[in-house]
Specification:
mainly alpha, 2 domains, 6 helices
């Protein structure tokens, strides 16, 4: 009788084999992060794709803004990420919040 590994283990092994075969496995293995998380983040493109394409920049420039701190801004960006299922990694959420802060909010960090 042949014993099979659980599906999740097999899937992880296949994914790792694909990464190593593509020459990308070492970075993922050494950092413990997904390969995408180790690459540079284009916050401007993420803001355009996930933020201003939906509601424009008026959300950030109105007088009665709901966000009062950098921490609240990060929380809001993560809430949008979760609710809209944008798929941003944590470092992308941070980069988007940082860019929005630099461009519009000017909170101390």
């Amino acid at each position: 009788m042949k014993v099979r590994a659980p599906i999740a283990v097999t899937a992880r092994a296949s994914a790792l084999a694909a990464l190593v075969g593509a020459g990308l496995g070492a970075g993922a293995l050494l950092t413990g992060l997904p390969v995408a998380a180790t690459e540079s983040v284009d916050a401007e493109a993420l803001v355009q794709k996930n933020c201003t394409s939906c509601h424009g920049s008026e959300m950030y420039t109105r007088e009665d803004r709901k966000i009062g701190s950098f921490s609240a801004l990060e929380t809001q960006v993560e809430a949008c990420n979760t609710n809209l299922d944008t798929g941003m990694f944590p470092e992308e959420v941070k980069a988007v919040a940082t860019l929005l802060n630099e461009e519009y909010y000017k909170f101390e960090q």
